[in-house]
């Protein structure tokens, strides 16, 4: 069978190649490859891609040779291959037949399809033989000929043709070029892994360039350089480091035939996307330009730009239809998108999208700029409603992106909770509450804040380090996860009687039948103010665990297994009566049943103005809040009351952020009040309400300051009333990039501090948002988490830190405000992120000074055997969801079968001289025979 213009691209993953000196892959004939070469048959030969036999990847090229010198397979480029510095074309060939095959290889140059511009040589492959690493020299020939006008720098076509043995079939694979000798093959899995960065987890409609090798469709202006590197890679194993020496010097991409990216061809609005890292030392605007047409009168183009900070990685895109950016919060209902729209800096011109002829990138820097590019592709246009079509599958996962732990069907979830529970254990060297053991050497018994603590207290060691103290008197550092509840797992479906959203309705492939709130709202932000919301997590939770009660039991066991000793803020109160580990409780002054409208004052903040604490309704609301907490506490058994670490009230309030004590705001009585006065009234009312409700002997943990809403004056006032100050600190760590002045004030006040929120997120989860602090991957999240905790534990004033949050935000956005972050320890199907949980076990084990390196999955076996049982009682180290699924799920793929290799004799490497007697005699006759197209 003959076929024409087979355009493939390099298969990136899972291909083990022999290691050649400066080797580049030309093609391994894989489906989905993208390069500018055309692979065709000519003469009477037929060529077909097949799945066996193969020597590399999953496909090879079957070549059915006809009459002598009458045809073969050819690979040709629209311009020169650029092989001027290369020495060999290297390839693999298989002969499954019963006869020896003689064939030729020819390279033609300078667009002249005659032997005067070609080099060719002849080869043999014996019957039933696989030959690997056959070398065709681009400089010399043993049995062929070199044309007088041949130049290897101008090679445009490579041919495999019939020699003296007509009507035979061979299989060609793994065509490479090399500038040197063949090295020993590298065992699969041995190469150093590429340094990865995060790519936007959106659907790829068409790959333009994967930068696994330098293709012939890439052109560089004078001075611009390109080097393939294995750092800052988003897909595959290579990326391209581009050096732009001056303004407007560009890297350009030209297709062999015009790209057709019309809406009709793509089936939707599209965009050109590129993963790019600014490796320079200054923020730089990267410009992209698209062009359509070829004739001078038809060529039109538009330029776009996006400023990328030094060291930052972004996926940037250009809307092919010049669609204006959507308001991601108000129109889409999300907080973050995974890719960033480049803005046009000139009036956009409508392109002929069926004739896109050029993509170029450049800068306007007058000095050198350097970027790493990867994964140039066409994606759905996130500036258009169709870009969000069916992005969420029936389980609430990313429908267009595969990731670790992705569930393929609801049936895979069944029973996973029970299987996981059998593996869970706990850290061994702990007090019953998760504190240090009495003989740990940590004695925190000085300067205790509460005179008669009802449960936990907070005290100093003789060395001046603050600790929480558990009911048995042991030092306790509160390590926890927050938001363990279903409420924040709901997402708006777009269905509403008031403000329906067709964009949101189109996001979902299916809506589950349970955990639907048909009248959710009013929301804080989003396109639907009130309407239908659904919890995919709730449905998946029941499939995994069976029911809510079992989920609660298994959740607490998970916390113990991962080493956490506290259920953080906004834990569902249903945990209070049954939790085996301590927990915090919380209240809202102005939010909840029966609350009265309170006047507001102060500056505008993210969540709104401050309540006026002189309003009598505020005092009434504070009393209701304290009474609600007291009711919850009084309903608990004595044993459970002892597990109350403390009480948070309110969150991230809009205290002035300028630190100017002269700022004044008028209350409902028209009186001008400074922020310090407002704080004094607020904290006195709240702490008084807690005291009056009988909660004064529980630690008051403050109101969780945000960096954008606090002043030194307010913090000083809070220190008078709160037993422990609380801050939400979204930084890399508290030592290097948090507020040095705030740390100094804490030291001066000498007050204990607890962190209410921090997190890191990554896009390899499939979520569209990373969160406030960004990581490159789940592994990087884990490393950043550990570094953050190291900085907290090293500070003598910090007595706890709670990660926000236990569960990932919905990919389509939290119903209340659109948060869509990968910030959970578990995802939407309740699958733990093993990188995070394994790291947490080590971090939490080390809190009281133990050497816990043996709990790291990468620790040496001898280390594990000697000490792991002394530290941890479970069997969950390194266990992934895939491990739980694999042994009982018939739907879980086991991976493709290995292709069957033909039975062969010991192969020989034909490099122009190792021939059979038959071949030698035949080639003597053919010594001066010319081959033809």
From TrEMBL:
Domain of life: Bacteria
InterPro entries listed in its UniProt record: Agarase_CBM (IPR040669), GH (IPR017853)
Biased composition (Acidic residues): 886-895
Keyword set, alphabetical order: Signal
UniProt domain Agarase CBM-like: residue ranges: 229-383
Signal peptide range: 1-21
Disordered: annotated segments: 882-909
The protein's name in its UniProt record: Beta-agarase
Native source species: Vibrio agarilyticus
């Amino acid at each position: 069978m003959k076929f024409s213009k087979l355009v493939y691209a390099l298969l990136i993953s899972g291909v083990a190649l022999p290691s050649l000196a400066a080797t580049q892959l030309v093609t391994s004939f894989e489906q989905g490859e993208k390069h500018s070469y055309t692979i065709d048959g000519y003469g009477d030969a037929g060529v077909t891609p097949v799945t066996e036999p193969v020597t590399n990847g999953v496909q090879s090229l079957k070549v059915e040779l006809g009459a002598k010198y009458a045809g073969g397979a050819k690979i040709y480029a629209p311009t020169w291959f650029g092989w001027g510095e290369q020495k060999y074309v290297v390839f693999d060939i298989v002969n499954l037949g019963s006869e020896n095959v003689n064939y030729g290889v020819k390279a033609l140059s300078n667009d002249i399809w005659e032997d005067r511009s070609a080099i060719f040589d002849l080869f043999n492959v014996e019957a039933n033989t696989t030959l690997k690493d056959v070398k065709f020299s681009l400089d010399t020939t043993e049995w062929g000929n070199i044309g007088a006008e041949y130049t290897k720098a101008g090679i445009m076509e490579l041919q495999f043709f019939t020699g003296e043995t007509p009507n035979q079939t061979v299989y060609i694979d793994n065509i490479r070029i090399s500038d040197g000798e063949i090295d020993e093959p590298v065992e699969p899995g041995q190469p150093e892994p590429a340094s990865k960065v995060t790519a936007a987890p959106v659907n790829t409609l068409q790959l333009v360039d994967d930068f696994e090798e330098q293709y012939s469709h890439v052109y560089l202006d004078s001075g611009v350089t390109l080097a393939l590197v294995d750092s800052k890679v988003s897909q595959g194993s290579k990326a391209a480091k581009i050096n732009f020496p001056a303004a407007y010097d560009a890297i350009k991409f030209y297709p062999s035939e015009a790209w057709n990216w019309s809406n009709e061809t793509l089936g939707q609005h599209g965009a050109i996307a590129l993963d790019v890292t600014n490796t320079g030392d200054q923020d730089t605007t990267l410009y992209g330009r698209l062009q359509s047409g070829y004739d001078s009168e038809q060529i039109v183009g538009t330029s776009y730009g996006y400023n990328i900070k030094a060291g930052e990685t972004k996926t940037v895109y250009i809307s092919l239809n010049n669609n204006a950016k959507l308001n991601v919060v108000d129109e889409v209902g999300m907080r973050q998108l995974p890719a960033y729209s480049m803005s046009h800096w000139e009036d956009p011109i409508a392109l002929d999208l069926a004739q896109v002829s050029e993509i170029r990138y450049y800068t306007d820097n007058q000095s050198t700029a350097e970027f790493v590019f990867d994964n140039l592709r066409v994606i759905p246009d996130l500036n258009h409603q169709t870009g969000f079509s069916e992005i969420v599958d029936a389980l609430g996962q990313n429908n267009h992106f595969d990731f670790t732990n992705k569930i393929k069907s609801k049936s895979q979830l069944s029973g996973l909770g029970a299987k996981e529970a059998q593996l869970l254990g706990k850290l061994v060297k702990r007090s019953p509450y998760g504190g240090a053991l009495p003989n740990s050497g940590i004695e925190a018994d000085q300067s205790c804040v509460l005179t008669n603590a009802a449960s936990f207290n907070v005290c100093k060691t003789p060395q001046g380090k603050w600790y929480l103290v558990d009911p048995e008197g042991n030092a306790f550092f509160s390590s926890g996860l927050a938001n363990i509840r279903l409420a924040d797992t709901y997402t708006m479906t777009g269905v509403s009687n008031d403000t329906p959203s067709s964009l949101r309705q189109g996001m979902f492939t299916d809506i589950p039948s349970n955990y639907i709130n048909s009248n959710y709202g009013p929301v804080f932000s989003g396109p639907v103010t009130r309407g239908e919301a659904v919890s995919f997590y709730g449905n998946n939770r029941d499939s995994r665990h069976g029911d809510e009660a079992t989920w609660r039991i298994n959740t607490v066991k998970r916390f113990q297994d991962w080493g956490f000793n506290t259920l953080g803020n906004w834990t569902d109160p249903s945990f209070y009566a049954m939790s085996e580990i301590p927990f915090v409780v919380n209240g809202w002054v102005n939010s909840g049943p029966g609350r009265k409208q309170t006047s507001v004052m102060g500056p505008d903040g993210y969540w709104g103005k401050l309540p006026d604490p002189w309003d009598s309704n505020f005092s009434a609301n504070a009393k209701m809040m304290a009474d609600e907490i007291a009711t919850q506490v009084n309903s608990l058994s004595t044993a459970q009351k002892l597990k109350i670490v403390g009480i948070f009230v309110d969150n991230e309030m809009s205290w002035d952020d300028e630190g100017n004590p002269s700022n004044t705001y008028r209350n409902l009585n028209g009186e001008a009040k400074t922020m310090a006065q407002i704080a004094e009234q607020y904290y006195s009312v709240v702490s008084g309400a807690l005291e009056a409700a009988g909660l004064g002997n529980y630690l008051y943990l403050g109101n969780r300051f945000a960096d954008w809403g606090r002043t030194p004056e307010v913090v000083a006032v809070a220190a008078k009333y709160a037993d422990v100050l609380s801050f939400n600190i979204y930084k890399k760590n508290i030592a290097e990039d948090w507020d040095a002045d705030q740390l100094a004030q804490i030291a001066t006040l000498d007050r204990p501090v607890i962190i209410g929120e921090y997190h890191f997120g990554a896009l390899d989860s499939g979520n569209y948002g990373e969160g406030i602090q960004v990581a490159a991957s789940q592994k990087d999240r884990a490393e950043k988490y550990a570094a953050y905790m190291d900085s907290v534990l090293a500070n003598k004033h910090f007595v706890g830190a709670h990660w926000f949050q236990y569960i990932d935000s919905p990919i389509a956005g939290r119903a209340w405000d659109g948060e869509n972050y990968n910030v959970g320890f578990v995802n939407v199907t309740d699958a733990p992120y093993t990188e995070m949980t394994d790291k947490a076990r080590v971090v939490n084990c080390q809190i009281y000074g133990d050497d816990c390196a043996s709990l790291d999955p990468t620790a040496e076996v001898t280390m594990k055997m000697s000490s792991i049982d002394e530290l941890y009682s479970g069997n969950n180290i390194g266990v992934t969801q895939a491990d739980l699924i694999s042994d009982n799920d018939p739907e879980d793929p086991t991976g493709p079968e290995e292709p069957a290799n033909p039975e062969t004799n010991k192969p020989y490497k034909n490099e122009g001289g190792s021939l059979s007697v038959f071949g030698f005699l035949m080639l003597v006759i053919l010594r001066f025979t010319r081959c033809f197209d």
